[in-house]
Every structure is written in C-alpha cells, then in structure tokens.
Amino acid sequence: MTNNVRVRFAPSPTGPLHIGGVRTALFNYLFAKKHNGTFILRIEDTDQNRYVEGAEHYIIDALNWCNMPFDEGPGKNERFGPYRQSERKHLYKQYADELIANGNAYYAFDTAETLDFHRKDHEAKGKTFIYNWHNRLKLSNSLSLSAEETQAKLDAGDDYVIRFKSPQDETLHLTDIIRGDIKIDTNVLDDKVLFKSDGMPTYHLANIVDDHLMEISHVIRGEEWLPSLALHYQLYKAFGWEAPEFAHLPLILKPTGKGKLSKRDGDKLGFPVFPLQWTDPKTNEVSRGYKEDGYFPDAMINFLAFLGWNPGTEQEIFNLEELIEAFDLEKVNKSGARFDPDKIKWFNHHYMQEQYNEDLAEAFKNSQVELSEIDVEYIALVVGLIKERATFVSDFWNLSHFFFTAPTSYDEKASKKALKEGTDAIMNQVISIINTIEDFTVENLQTEIKGWITSNDISFGKVMMPLRLALVGALQGPDVFDIMYMIGKNETVKRIENIVKTL
User: Fold this and answer.
1) Is-catalytic flag, 263?
2) What fold, for 412-502?
3) Which residues sit opposite 252 in a β-bridge?
4) From the candidates 263, 345, 417, 420, which is the catalytic residue?
5) 3-state secondary structure 474-493
6) 263 is an annotated ligand-binding site residue
7) DSSP 3-state of 60
8) Model-level pTM?
9) Which run of H or of E encompasses 222?
10) What angle do CA 357, 320, 70 make, to 5 degrees?
11) CATH topology of domain 90-195
12) In this predicted model, what pLDDT tens digit does every residue of 392-441 receive, in sequence order?
C-alpha cells in the first residue's frame, strides 16, 4: 500500500445524495482515516444537462451531518483544485489529443443517424452493435480515412468525438481489492467515447485524468462502475501512468433482497432513501430525509457500515472511531447487501439511549407546542423515564403526555380490565394513604402503598391497575410510583378522585 493514501468521493450534482452514495462516501472516509490519509470531495458535473441547482450544497451538508467532512474539495484546502469538473474542462482536450498522438485514440465522425442505423440493423439480425476492432475500419473515423481526409473534416468543422482504440485479441488481467483477479477479453470491449462533440470530456476521460492529477491512491466506488474497470486500466496504461488500486463495493439491495434499492422502494414501504430532506427545485416535490425523520447520524453510519462489510466478530455497535479502527476493505463482501429498514430503527433505538436527557428534552420541547411553557429540566426527567421505549424523539409525546396533562378519557379495554366492583373504595383508601405521606418520594410511596396492599392481603392488580389507569388513562407507561412522584401529590390525588367519580 502506498504511504500516502488519497481517496475521493465523486458524486454528480444531479439531485439528492442517495443512501448508496452515502455508503460509498463512508467507506472512502473510513479507509482514509484508517491509514491517516486524505478524503477528497470532487464534484463531477461535466453533464450540465443533468445539473440540479442546490445539489452540490446538499451533498456537502449531508457529509457534514454524517460527521464525514471532506479534507479537500470545493472551497477547502484546494491543493489540487479546482474540484468541480466543469471548472477543469480546459484540461481534458490536451489529454485526449495525447492519446490520438500516441495511437491509443482516434477521431470518429459518424453521425447519430448512421450509428442508429447500425444498431437497428444489428438488432434485426439478433446481434448487438459494438463499435470496435471488427467494424471501425468500415465506419467514418480517422482510422478508415486518410490523414488528408481527416484533416479536411477537422478544418471544415465537422462534428466529431474521440474514441479510445481498444486492443484486439488481448486478455487483460485486472485486480480488485474486494473481488480479486479479473480477466477480460478485449475483443468484447467497445471503443468508448472519451471526448464529445460539445467539447466536453466523458466521465471516463475526466475521471482518469482527475484521479491522476489529484494523486488518488485508491478508487473505492460502487459495483455499477465495474464494467468500466477494463477501460480505466487501459487508459492508465495508454498514458503511461501508474493506476490506483480499485475496490468495487456491492450493491445495496431492496428490502426483499432482489434488485437495487431505489427511491420508489422507500416511498412504497415508508422509509427515506436520502440522508437529508430534499425539495426538488423544479417540481417542489419533497423527499423525506433520515435527519428530519428523527434518526441520529451515528445510527445511520453504524447501519450503513454493515451494508456489505463485516468485522468478523459479534460486535454490531461501533462509534465512528471504532469503525475507523476496525475497517478493512478486504472484509467487504462481493454480494449485494439487503437494506433492512427495521435494522436501522434498531440502531437508532440504541443511540437514543446514549443521548443526554437534556439534549433530548430540548429537541422534544421544540417539537411539541404543548411543552412551550414547561421547564426543560422537568422534561429531561420525564425523558429519562421513557426513552428506553422510544426509537425517535417523535415517539416521546405518546409515551409521556400524561406527565404534562391529566387524562380526559380512559381506554375502554383497559377500563373493563381494571375497574371492578369495589374499586372505588380501594382508590379512596389509596388517596387516604397518599395524604398521610409528608415526604412525597418514590421510596415512601412504594413503602406505604405496597405495605398496605400486603398487610390487607389484596391482590396487587386490584390496586395497581386502576391506579395506573387513573394516572395515565391507559395501562401503559413507566413505573406508577415514578409517575406519581413526577406529577406531585396534589395532581396524583386529583387524578385518582376523577376516576372514582366516573365509577
């Protein structure tokens, strides 16, 4: 391994950052930090027709929310800048010309109509049209034309593209950190376009040139780029450059395990596929984000790390520092990883328990208008009693509303179960016991009420169920004595008196 690890995350600003892109960024980030390297953000915006306003800003915000800030990128430590490909387009033509000069590329003047004719002709014969060694001398390009004819077309301003000249009858031996050795027959490769008629490079040329100029040591990217590996290796060879090491990450699959995860799957099954909420600038359609849905960034990162990677131990909970320490590309799986929306909730529940009650209380208060006048310290005490049953801050109100407001009705099924003949007398006796307790603490409440139940040989259910119903309105919630202590003696008595009146 090179001593200077430099990796890049290179998204296109064509919309919000998909969860698969976040996973790719994460694996690049973990690898860079594991080896004291540099994590670079490069914006690949050569396709201006698909550019979406606000997408680049969204990408940066998403990385920051995930606690994966880039070391180099647009506006930050621009040692190898610029980091937007649209601002680098003056660089690429010279490299395309260099490939033509050394015989590894050629001008192609074929019109779109001509190529479409050949494609349809091949389809009609049950074949696939591939522009390469077997037919390029029959088409309109600088290999089939004389030097004079080629120059005349260039001088006349004819539209052209520059294609890579794939070799014939060779076997490429490629290496991928995750997938091992790969053999490719060059006869099945097409002569990819490297430079377009609009004066812009294709992804393949710009990607290779930028990776070389930015001294990228490892290219860690999605499996969808695996078919491009052969071309990229050949381009490095054609330029006489040392190729970086490659690692192609497995796909993130639908919850069913079949097919690549898409936004449609999230919409259909009710979970986000983007880290942050996104509003489409053209349609104003709003797409949900993990942040706005109440997920903690640590939970999402921990979950994503296990989509395709496994440390080889039973441990599942890793903070970011632990992930960096444990991460190893050779432990990344080849096969696709199934996205499990219930598993990320499991992670979020865990990280909920690790949050400070005071921080959760602030978030809870800000999300619930009923709490605007409630002291945040009291809310924090309530949070401490209920958060073990919560997955999101948005769960808190249903779990705790009775700490703030008395029940106005009682659950019908719970009432039938808890309220029996003689319950009113029992509840009145509980009121009497409560009124005798001067030091109103959880311990004293437990001692006095449980002692009375035991000494009078009453079943606990006959007392505790109607008592809980009086306080909560249902047979749920944390310990009854905690609730009584929190709402205070006067409110406790008042609620018990109210349920006695309904009897």
Assistant:
1) yes
2) Arc Repressor Mutant, subunit A (1.10.10)
3) 337
4) 263
5) CCCCCCHHHHHHHHCHHHHH
6) yes
7) helix
8) 0.92
9) strand 218-222
10) 115
11) Glutamyl-tRNA Synthetase; domain 3 (3.90.800)
12) 999 999 999 999 999 999 999 999 999 999 999 999 999 999 999 999 99
